[in-house]
């Protein structure tokens, strides 16, 4: 797909900190549109979706701001689905990661419509596989993967028209380094494929990505859900929940370039960028740089592939 649509979802209703609502504008200020247009893509910026304000309440029955999160996700679902139907590659500019529910349920619906299989790369410091029983906080940005797999309030699990929206085997989680105890058990129980930071430390990004991308074919839709907190906080301070020990700049670039090499990416989320915590927009600039790599920008100067 050479046609790309930017969709801003300026909200932090699912987050534990305020500020991810400013993420879409920060990426625009960092030059996302121009950077993609320079890659020869047909880029349209659909502007920002509108939705309820953040009421900043405490959780009720295990969820914080459930009504608002549902409404935002419904709008994200509709917007993503519309772009996919028009054979455009949607880029969701978050916004907190709870919006992955609307985004990925739309992608899954599109795959059902078109008879494709779906592979999801979840680049994140966290597994985001909490449920209201497991989550101490009730913040729904810690729950999107569980909701997509059918574990969560029905208002959220049914957004894409099928419950569950996805199967755990379709997901590859990469860069994980912070998982709650109960969540960890649940991740194992459901058989999620997790390439955590220790795995990356031991085998390196190259082999990790080869494994995560194994088995794609020309009927596979590849969705990338990129939580900016995936990156090491040294290079990406502008996120709500920084966890040390993430991928370096070069490691992140290699991840993105290897995804680009597959030629299969059909949709993308860029989530949890928080300009209120950033330093002179550097995390947004970095996010744009990495998105360019996802679309094939590379410094490749070599004649031969490196030995295996
Ligand atoms: Mn996340």
From TrEMBL:
<feature type="binding site">
    <location>
        <position position="124"/>
    </location>
    <ligand>
        <name>Mn(2+) 2</name>
    </ligand>
</feature>
<feature type="binding site">
    <location>
        <position position="97"/>
    </location>
    <ligand>
        <name>Mn(2+) 1</name>
    </ligand>
</feature>
<comment type="pathway">
    <text>Nitrogen metabolism; urea cycle; L-ornithine and urea from L-arginine: step 1/1.</text>
</comment>
<protein>
    <recommendedName>
        <fullName>Arginase</fullName>
        <ecNumber>3.5.3.1</ecNumber>
    </recommendedName>
</protein>
<dbReference type="Pfam" id="PF00491">
    <property type="entry name" value="Arginase"/>
</dbReference>
<comment type="similarity">
    <text>Belongs to the arginase family.</text>
</comment>
<keyword id="KW-0378">Hydrolase</keyword>
<feature type="binding site">
    <location>
        <position position="229"/>
    </location>
    <ligand>
        <name>Mn(2+) 1</name>
    </ligand>
</feature>
<dbReference type="InterPro" id="IPR014033">
    <property type="entry name" value="Arginase"/>
</dbReference>
<dbReference type="GO" id="GO:0004053">
    <property type="term" value="F:arginase activity"/>
</dbReference>
<feature type="binding site">
    <location>
        <position position="126"/>
    </location>
    <ligand>
        <name>Mn(2+) 2</name>
    </ligand>
</feature>
<keyword id="KW-0464">Manganese</keyword>
<dbReference type="InterPro" id="IPR006035">
    <property type="entry name" value="Ureohydrolase"/>
</dbReference>
<feature type="binding site">
    <location>
        <position position="128"/>
    </location>
    <ligand>
        <name>Mn(2+) 1</name>
    </ligand>
</feature>
<dbReference type="GO" id="GO:0030145">
    <property type="term" value="F:manganese ion binding"/>
</dbReference>
<keyword id="KW-0056">Arginine metabolism</keyword>
<dbReference type="InterPro" id="IPR023696">
    <property type="entry name" value="Ureohydrolase_dom_sf"/>
</dbReference>
<keyword id="KW-0479">Metal-binding</keyword>
<dbReference type="InterPro" id="IPR020855">
    <property type="entry name" value="Ureohydrolase_Mn_BS"/>
</dbReference>
<dbReference type="GO" id="GO:0005737">
    <property type="term" value="C:cytoplasm"/>
</dbReference>
<feature type="binding site">
    <location>
        <position position="227"/>
    </location>
    <ligand>
        <name>Mn(2+) 1</name>
    </ligand>
</feature>
<dbReference type="GO" id="GO:0000050">
    <property type="term" value="P:urea cycle"/>
</dbReference>
<dbReference type="GO" id="GO:0006525">
    <property type="term" value="P:arginine metabolic process"/>
</dbReference>
């Amino acid at each position: 797909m050479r046609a790309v649509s930017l969709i801003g979802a300026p909200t932090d209703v699912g987050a534990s900190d305020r500020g991810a609502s400013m993420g879409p504008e920060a990426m625009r200020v960092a030059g996302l549109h121009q950077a993609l247009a320079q890659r020869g893509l047909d880029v349209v910026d659909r502007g920002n979706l509108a939705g309820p304000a953040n009421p900043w309440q405490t959780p009720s029955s295990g969820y914080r701001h459930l009504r608002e999160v549902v409404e935002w996700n419904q709008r994200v679902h509709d917007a993503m689905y519309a772009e996919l139907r028009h054979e455009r590659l949607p880029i969701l500019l978050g916004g907190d990661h709870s919006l992955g529910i609307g985004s990925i349920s739309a992608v899954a619906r599109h795959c059902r419509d078109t008879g494709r299989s779906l592979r999801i790369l979840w680049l994140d410091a966290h597994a985001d596989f909490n449920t209201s029983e497991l989550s101490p906080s009730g913040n729904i940005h810690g729950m999107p993967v569980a909701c997509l797999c059918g574990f969560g309030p029905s208002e959220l699990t049914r957004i894409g028209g099928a419950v569950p929206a996805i199967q755990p085997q379709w997901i590859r989680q990469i860069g994980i380094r912070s998982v709650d105890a109960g969540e960890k058990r649940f991740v194992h129980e459901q058989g999620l494929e997790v390439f955590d930071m220790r795995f990356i430390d031991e085998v390196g990004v190259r082999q990790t990505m080869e494994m995560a991308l194994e088995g794609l074919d020309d009927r596979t839709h590849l969705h990338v859900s990129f939580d900016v907190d995936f990156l090491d906080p040294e290079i990406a301070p502008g996120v709500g929940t920084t966890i040390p020990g993430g991928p370096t700049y070069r490691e992140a670039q290699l991840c993105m370039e290897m995804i680009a090499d597959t030629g299969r990416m059909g949709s993308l989320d860029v989530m949890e960028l928080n300009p209120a915590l950033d330093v002179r927009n550097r995390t947004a600039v970095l996010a744009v740089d990495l998105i360019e790599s996802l679309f094939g920008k590379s410094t490749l100067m070599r004649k031969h592939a490196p030995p295996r």
